[in-house]
Amino acid sequence: MTVGVTRENIAIVLQRPRYPENIGSAARAMCNMGFHRLIVVDPGIWDEERIRRLATHAAGAVVDGIERFDVLSDALAPFGHVVGTTARLGGQRPVLKSPEVLAEKLIDLSRNNPVAIVFGSEDRGLTNEDLKYCHQLVNIPTTGFTSLNLSQAVMVICYCLATATRSDPPAFTPRLAKRIELDRMYEELTEALVRIEYVQPDNPDYWMSRLRRFFARLPLRAGEVGIIRGICRQILWYGNRRYEEGSVDGKTMEDGRPLR
Amino acid sequence: MTVGVTRENIAIVLQRPRYPENIGSAARAMCNMGFHRLIVVDPGIWDEERIRRLATHAAGAVVDGIERFDVLSDALAPFGHVVGTTARLGGQRPVLKSPEVLAEKLIDLSRNNPVAIVFGSEDRGLTNEDLKYCHQLVNIPTTGFTSLNLSQAVMVICYCLATATRSDPPAFTPRLAKRIELDRMYEELTEALVRIEYVQPDNPDYWMSRLRRFFARLPLRAGEVGIIRGICRQILWYGNRRYEEGSVDGKTMEDGRPLR
Questions:
Q1: Could you tell me if residue A257 is inside a domain?
Q2: Domain tRNA/rRNA methyltransferase SpoU type: where (chains A, B) (predicted)?
Q3: Long-range contacts made by residues B53-57, C-beta under 8 angstroms, separation at least 24?
Q4: Do A155 and A201 share a domain, yes or no?
Q5: Chain B residues touching A2 at Cβ < 8 A
Q6: pLDDT tens-digit profile of A12-25?
Q7: Percent of chain A with pLDDT over 90
Q8: For residue B192, what is the domain's CATH number?
Q9: What is the pLDDT of residues B194-212, one digit of tens each?
Q10: Residue B238: which of A147, A166, A196 has the nearest Cβ?
């Protein structure tokens, strides 16, 4: 059994978001990843209709539950651990270099502690004043263009928190072909390919080796071997039928017309 | 030394996106993560101003370079490996259970092969018809509410691809068959299988779907597609030869002996 972060102890905090659409998109992203506590501090515009349009109906409950504050310090008061997000690396504060590293830390921390993850405004990010309230900073690694859309940043963080140490359910595996089924398949395949002169009859093993390598690239399933054997049998049947058709036509075309 | 995916060989394909804003947001997310090739197929609305507003100035070059197509098959023709994104698990097709697993696979695959990652429309995702072109599907794991915003889904995939690294030396990867080579192979295969009556001519797609699933289990190499197409041609040749043999024998066996 594996454990992940304790989602109900983690809150997303948007500090001075400018656009209601980003609040709504953040709520939807949270909902996708199983997070439900959203705190909004001093928003530039509060327009619930625009928020809800991007949140979609599914994240309606997250929007209903939004906690609003005027100042960041009040919003963060009850939290035992506060993480700030930043596009900048370096400076005086230690920055966790990826959301994955953060997620690993939060698995233990969030078990018994309310944790806040704070995102700054779209244009300026978190100010030095805001950073004072953060125990820790995390950076989302980018390539070239560092400025993520606010709700995209929320998604990346929530995704990484949600997927940290997930236990994999065993994949469904259909029955694989037994060795004897494979051997018969290769016999029938060789016969069919010799008949259609795709492989040379004097040294079929040489010619078959490429096909064997191809099929060996994946463990063939019993059903797939059945398909291939069925096709081989149909090739032989087809040859016999065409022979009969030609034979009948040959008898009736005694006038010397060219064979079709 | 660590290796990652080869970004310049990876394209993001949006199939029938409804909203220009999502195209723009996807472009920005790509740009954040260092991906630059964006393909848009049959968009609901093409409004470059709305696209650019969400892309921001930084992703302007990605928007400039957008390749537009009317149909998905044309868009995918040059790609050696096509990955579809789906919110659904289960069903008959194998679905990679996370973007991380996909990313690990693409580290080798993207080195020498153009790879397309296809996202369906906001309301319906990828249809069964669209899925026919995909070698593989990937699911973004969610908790509860499975429907991700389109550009959020693009971000999660791009983020996972961008951050995947591996220290192993890369395995050798032969050239994979391009989508157009695969399409021709399926055409020739259908013709041959109809001829030998392995599939019913009135509904070949139904019968071919099992074979497509089989071949989709592994990325077919160009040389392997050549083998299969060669066999198909030989089957047709064989039918004609057998017909001629029967025809000649039919003329010479006037004494009523049974056809061999």
A1: no
A2: 10-159
A3: B53/B21, B53/B24, B54/A149, B54/B20, B54/B21, B54/B22, B54/B23, B54/B24, B54/B25, B54/B27, B54/B28, B54/B151, B55/B23, B55/B24, B55/B25, B55/B27, B55/B28, B55/B31, B56/A147, B56/B28
A4: no
A5: none
A6: 999 999 999 999 99
A7: 56
A8: 1.10.8.590
A9: 999 888 888 888 888 888 8
A10: A196
